[in-house]
């Protein structure tokens, strides 16, 4: 399930690396009780790995770049996605109770919030996906990280292993994991800074073969690594519909 949050603020300004700011806004929408603490500090675990339950997109809207900052004309929006409906319901209700959000010391008006979901299908299907935030594929050994393009031969195994780990961490049963990259339409390299770390990642568009269970997990949780830091959110053409919560 996914939320689209539409906002408005004249000349809204954020640094070009704003993912940690947006992550902080998402955490601020959660309660300060035990539930909020779980999502913020604990998360889901498998094999010494920790997975949070959400991912989020870049900001979308008309903007210009000045002094390493993005300045949006007026209206802009972003998406939050999660496999955990309780997480999204909490954010949804919090937004309904407020007229604005504080983002980077600017009181931004909330114009609308809508709910999106996938249309189920049976069997496997060839489908085109594209990233709404850059995909991060990497491995770490002896404190040294190696980054991979989606087209690198090692990438598919990392992606599939990541999906399997998420299934085990979230206790999300997939009878048959199906994820095959048939064709890479494009891959655009980005160097992204999150807090004090730089990551080599890629905006990409892929033709894949998958089933609904696998697609639902990557649609809701993100593709590959560090999704809760604003990496790996995907969109699927003609597979969304508005529903009520």
Automatic annotation (TrEMBL):
Q: Which residues form the active site?
A: 27 (proton acceptor), 40 (proton donor)
Q: Which GO terms describe its molecular function?
A: hydrolase activity, acting on ester bonds; RNA binding
Q: Which UniProt keywords apply?
A: Antiviral defense, RNA-binding
Superkingdom field: Bacteria
Q: Does the keyword RNA-binding apply?
A: yes
Q: Outline the extent of the CRISPR associated protein Cas6 C-terminal domain.
A: 122-236
* Keyword set includes Membrane: no
User: What are its GO biological-process terms?
Assistant: defense response to virus
List the residue(s) that the UniProt entry marks as the site Transition state stabilizer. Answer: 52
Query: Family per UniProt?
Result: Belongs to the CRISPR-associated protein Cas6/Cse3/CasE family.
Name the job this protein performs.
CRISPR (clustered regularly interspaced short palindromic repeat), is an adaptive immune system that provides protection against mobile genetic elements (viruses, transposable elements and conjugative plasmids). CRISPR clusters contain sequences complementary to antecedent mobile elements and target invading nucleic acids. CRISPR clusters are transcribed and processed into CRISPR RNA (crRNA).
Q: What is this protein called?
A: CRISPR-associated endoribonuclease
Q: Which organism is it from?
A: Faecalibacillus intestinalis
């Amino acid at each position: 399930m996914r939320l689209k949050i539409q906002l408005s603020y004249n000349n809204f300004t954020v640094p070009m690396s704003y993912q940690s700011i947006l992550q902080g806004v998402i955490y601020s929408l959660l309660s300060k009780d035990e539930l909020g603490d779980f999502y913020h500090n604990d998360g889901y675990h498998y094999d010494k790995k920790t997975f949070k339950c959400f991912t989020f997109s870049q900001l979308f809207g008309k903007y210009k770049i000045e002094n390493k900052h993005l300045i949006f004309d007026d209206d802009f929006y972003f998406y939050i996605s999660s496999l955990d409906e309780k997480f999204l319901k909490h954010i949804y209700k919090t937004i309904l109770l407020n007229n604005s959000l504080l983002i980077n010391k600017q009181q931004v008006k909330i114009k609308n919030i809508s709910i999106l979901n996938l249309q189920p299908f049976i069997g496997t299907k060839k489908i085109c996906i594209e990233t709404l935030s850059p995909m991060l594929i990497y491995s770490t050994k002896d404190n040294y990280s190696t980054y991979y393009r989606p087209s690198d031969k090692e990438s598919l195994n990392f992606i599939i292993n990541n999906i399997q780990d998420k299934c085990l961490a979230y206790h999300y049963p997939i009878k048959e994991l199906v994820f095959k990259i048939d064709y890479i339409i494009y891959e655009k390299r980005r160097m992204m800074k999150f807090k004090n770390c730089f990551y080599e990642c890629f905006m990409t568009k892929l033709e894949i073969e998958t089933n609904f269970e696998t697609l639902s997990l990557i649609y809701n949780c993100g593709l590959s690594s560090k999704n809760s830091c604003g990496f790996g959110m995907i969109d699927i053409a003609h597979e969304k519909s508005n529903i009520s919560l």
